[in-house]
Amino acid sequence: MAEEAKVKLHWLNGSRAQSTLFLLEQLEIPYELEIYHRQKSMLAPPELKKIHPLGKSPVITITAPDTPEPVVLAESAFITQYLCDHFPKGKTLVPARWKDGKEGKVGGETGEWVRYQYLMYYIEGSFMFTMVLGFILTGLKGNSVPFFVRPITTLIANQMISMLVYPNMKRHFGMMEQFLETSPGGGNYMCGRTLTGADIMLSYPLIAGKDGAFDSFGRWEKGSFKETFPKLHAYTERLEGEPGWKRSVEKIKEIGGGFSIMPTPGEPSARI
């Protein structure tokens, strides 16, 4: 029984484990939380490699009564799919697949389900690649870079952001804005009227960037990210107000003593 399984989230500051913690809270799954801190180099500590060879987070281990070895889950989309498949409340986060009378037929899937499946691949692939590149390049302009080389790294970062990050993020945000405008049933979420696993996967990167980080990529068409993509900005604030997200933040505060959406080595903060 899923209810008897022991679930542990290996949470690393500066990782998307915060979205996975949101998922656990939303599914109301009892879990254990183990916190890891980035080194001064911002690399993950070597202890995480004992859990998964890549030494990345999020990672979840699940021990069931009838399995001798724990199941180790890595990659946000796989974790989301697995937990939604195996735990009772998971079906509430996945749209119904088939239209009535179209079960198993090509083209018989609902629009909500097709959009959900697309987003699960898109978020982990196209979107996160550009997001991570943007935040890495932005870091080259920060105080972590020695001041005597910062003018050079800033020049290079600005050129890379204007050439690669900004035009791509403009397309990504424009598509998300369109998804919200055409949300099935006039819903307020990406796939319709209710929160899905795809929304939860989007929560952390969007929340991390909405209050200024996205504006550092360039000047948007109407001035700011908020003004240019009003539906996306409102959607991000809606995710930040979800009870599961709020509980995930409070959990880190409770265990780690504080929470910040932006990274600080050795502190219980979070970042992509």
Give a nutshell description of this structure.
This protein has 272 residues and is an alpha+beta fold. It has 8 helices and 4 strands; from the N terminus they run βαβββααααααα. A hairpin with a 7-residue loop joins β3 and β4.
Task: Describe the 3D structure.
- This protein is of the alpha+beta class.
- The chain has two domains: 2-93, Glutaredoxin (3-Layer(aba) Sandwich), CATH 3.40.30.10; 111-243, Up-down Bundle (Glutathione S-transferase Yfyf (Class Pi), Chain A, domain 2).
- It has helices at 17-27, 76-86, 111-139, 150-181, 197-210, 225-228, 230-240, 243-256, and strands at 6-12, 31-36, 59-63, 71-74.
- A four-stranded mixed β-sheet has the order 2-1-3-4, covered by helices on one side.
- A hairpin with a 7-residue loop joins strand 3 and strand 4.
- Helix 1 (17-27) crosses helix 5 (197-210) and helix 3 (111-139) packs antiparallel against helix 4 (150-181).
- The radius of gyration is 19 Å and the shape is globular.
Number of domains: 2
* Strand and helix order: EHEEEHHHHHHH
Summing up helix and strand content along with how strands pair, one would put the structural category as: alpha+beta
CATH class of the largest domain: Mainly Alpha
User: Which segments are poorly predicted (pLDDT under 50) over 5 or more consecutive residues?
Assistant: 264-272
Helix segment tally: 8
CATH architecture label name of the largest domain: Up-down Bundle
Strand content: 5-15%
* Count of extended strands: 4
Overall mean pLDDT stands at 89
**Largest β-sheet summary:** 4 strands, mixed
CATH topology of the largest domain: Glutathione S-transferase Yfyf (Class Pi), Chain A, domain 2
What is the approximate shape? globular
Gap between N and C termini: 33 Å
Q: Taking Cα atoms only, what radius of gyration do you get, to the nearest Å? A: 19 Å
Strand order of the largest sheet: 2-1-3-4
User: What share of residues is helical?
Assistant: 40-55%
